[in-house]
Amino acid sequence: MVEGRCSGGGKAVSVGIAEAKRDRSERRRGLLLALPSFAYMILFFAVPLIIVLVYSFATRTSTGSTSLSDWNLDAYRKLGEPIVRNVVLRSVVLALVTTAICLLVAYPFAWFCAHQRPVVRNMMLVAVMIPFWTNFLVRNYAWRLLLSSGGPISSFTEAIGLGETNILFTKTAVVIGLVYAYLPFMILPLFASIDRLDRRLVEAGRDLYGSGSQTFRRIVLPLTMPGVIAGSILVFVPSMGAYVTPELLGGGKETLLGSYIVTQFLTARNWPVGASLSFVLMAVMLVSTIIYFRSGGKNL
Amino acid sequence: MNAPNGSEEKVTVAVSLRGISKLFDDVTAVDSVDLDIDDGEFFALLGPSGCGKTTTLRMIAGLEIPSSGSLQIFGDEVGSLPPNKRPVNTVFQNYALFPHMSVADNVAFGLRMRKVEKSEIADRVAQAISLVRMSGMENRRPSQLSGGQQQRVALARALVNRPKVLLLDEPLAALDLKLRQEMQFELKQLQREVGITFVFVTHDQEEALALSDRIGVMNDGRLLQVGSPEEMYDAPADRFVADFIGRSNFLKGTLESSEVVCLANGQRISVPAVDVGSVGDDVQVSLRPERVMICDAGTAPEGMARLSGTVETETFLGNSVIYRVALDWMTVEVETDHRPDVERHHAGEHVDLWWRDDAVAVVRP
């Protein structure tokens, strides 16, 4: 008996060791598989980010070159100046308007889509994605054509007696372009959270004397809030830093964050300010995203 | 408490359905149902899944609009009113508690929607929560509750509104067996306490028999029979009802007069007078396994209906023994008590089966 138990114990230990060994080698193999993407991220994301961070502490010399010898916070101090503040404010307002319009357009669409038969809903979602398969620049130039005076939209309003419209190179044009570009980022997370919503909760709300709008406000909206927030972040963040669309459809008339940063780097040759602004923008986005995911995990 | 038939006093009708039908894309889910549910009654809609019982309940709740027919709640036509305009509340299958609200907020929801005064809401919510014995759990989230507790909160959330009719959709289906039996008892108790008309949907015949004052059995969108649990068990009018509530043997035959059936083997038996068809119609005689007596061949008492056959199998079930007895034209199942003083029969033995005339029911085939 005793002998038997001993040998049995020995076997168990050796099995345990073999198991640990295999676990370790499996983990190593997993790391090996992930290595290319790790390397890519480090090389093309982390390293440039660090370079930007380093440059944000540097000084612009009088000749317009950048000196790394004297580290200071001058560039960050410059962000508090009225010019920069106005640019930031303008960008925030534009991004907020874009996000709000996206939300108002996307929510009913996502709701409708989530209540269709699977075949129909898949077709609708593919239709949402189709513009993505076209080059971003091409799409922006297409909008330029559509919005220009003498373009289709202008001709239409003229034909129905509203007179010529000239939307191109206005804030409206920029918002239209941004909404168009980022709408799918709003629709998809909204669709996902509406699709997950238990229909019986809506019925329960109605059964408990809630009107349609009360049930929406008290039950549907809170329960689909994760989708609303995720979609809003996905639209707000790129809208804040948008460069191509404001340049092409807004004609660069009003400086927004994206173009201001580009100007700092290329025209004003003030790399530290460009770098600090980029870094602050990114940090704010990153922190708000982290806060959202932290709280989102707890809420549902 | 309830007075189904034969009572002279006038009963208020809580829910009245007249010719109610519901079509979903040409599929008839509910087919011309007529039903009166009395005030204060515990009524069960019983049937297999897909029989239209849930659709019927949802129409009363206002979650579905009938395709045709008239639906009244305490005399008011409610056919196309939205759910929030009806004096009924529903306990949903799987409860549908709001996951983002506490127990107290869930229970208070209906009162808040109706803009009841704050102090009154607090009182009534506390009262409802203590009624279902959930005091102390007010601040929990539904996800922190067990199935039975969620069930109680769902009941409180509906009852706090003092509905005229409470609708329950498979209220116990999500609970495990032991809890289900406990909740059955509690539900019955609760209904007596609050005195509200309960209409509940179930596919579980035992649950329906145990809980309700009256049962309506549905199949294929049609309401087949309505009656007290005893009536449904003793005098089913339809083969489906007899088969769905309890077990039964079905002997084929034709109606010779209102009280005599000629069985398929040519034998005549007398039956309780029931109005299920006219003379000459094909009918079936429902014979419950536990109401058939079994004895050695030739020893059946005189004057009783009897059939002779051979025991095919005997199955011992602890408190009872099930025999399958082969006649020359069909097989009959017989259930006897298992007691030391009851003689056992074995496979291959010739036996007689006999029963009292009132042990059978004539049913539509």
Inertia-based shape of chain B: elongated
Oligomeric grouping of the chains:
heterodimer
The main pleated sheet of chain A reads as:
2 strands, antiparallel
The biggest sheet of chain B amounts to: 6 strands, mixed
Helix content of chain B: 10-25%
The percentage helix of chain A is over 70%
**Strand arrangement in the largest pleated sheet of chain A:** 1-2
CATH evolutionary superfamily of chain A:
MetI-like
Order of helices and strands of chain B: EEEHEEEHHHEHEHEEHHEEEEEEEEEE
Low-confidence stretches of chain A: 1-9
Total discrete domains of chain B: 2
Please count the beta strands of chain A (DSSP E, at least 2 residues each): 2
Beta-strand segment tally of chain B: 20
Beta-strand content bin of chain B: 25-35%
The CATH class name of chain A reads Mainly Alpha
- Enumerate the spans of chain B where pLDDT stays under 50 for 5 or more consecutive residues: 1-8
Mean pLDDT of chain A: 87
CATH class of the largest domain in chain B: Alpha Beta
Count of alpha and pi helical runs of chain B: 8
CATH topology of chain A: MetI-like fold
The chain-level structural class of chain B is alpha+beta
Give an overview in words.
The complex is a heterodimer of chains A (300) and B (365). Chain A is mainly alpha-helical and 300 residues long. Chain A has one domain: MetI-like (MetI-like fold, Orthogonal Bundle). Chain A is 78% helix and 1% strand. Chain A contains twelve helices and two strands. Chain A has helices at residues 2-56, 74-78, 82-114, 118-129, 136-147, 152-159, 171-196, 199-207, 212-240, 244-250, 257-266, 271-299; strands at 59-60, 66-67. A two-stranded antiparallel sheet of chain A has the order 1-2. In chain A, a hairpin with a 5-residue loop joins strand 1 (59-60) and strand 2 (66-67). Residues 1-9 of chain A have low confidence and may be disordered. Chain B has a six-stranded mixed sheet, sandwiched between helices. Chain B has eight helices and 20 strands. In chain B, helix 2 crosses helix 3, helix 2 packs parallel to helix 4 (147-159) and helix 3 crosses helix 4. Chain B is an alpha+beta fold. Chain B has two domains: 13-234, P-loop containing nucleotide triphosphate hydrolases (Rossmann fold, 3-Layer(aba) Sandwich), CATH 3.40.50; 250-363, RNA polymerase II/Efflux pump adaptor protein, barrel-sandwich hybrid domain (OB fold (Dihydrolipoamide Acetyltransferase, E2P)). Classes of the chains: A mainly alpha (300), B alpha+beta (365). The interface between A and B is medium-sized, with 19 and 24 residues.
